[in-house]
Write a structure and sequence with these properties.
The chain is an all-alpha fold and 69 residues long. Helix content is 80%, strand content 0%.
Length: 69
């Protein structure tokens, strides 16, 4: 009886840990494949602020964003 309860608890802990790491892996892969912001978005944001960005400014923004990923 006690043995069965301990085995169930161990199984739940192992399942929770495996689920956490699998979810973390798949989320990192998804974010890498589909970044939340791209060059077009940066260009649109800067134009909304009244600035006409050039390629160098957009690249600087992208590098600063990638630094925090």
């Amino acid at each position: 009886m006690v043995h069965d309860i301990i085995m169930i608890l161990i199984g739940l802990l192992i399942g929770a840990a495996a689920g956490f790491f699998l979810a973390r892996y798949f989320m990192k892969k998804y974010i890498k494949d589909n970044p939340p912001i791209n060059e077009d978005m940066i260009k649109a944001l800067m134009m909304q602020m009244g600035r006409k960005p050039n390629k160098k400014q957009i690249n600087q923004m992208m590098k600063s964003m990638e630094k925090y990923n």
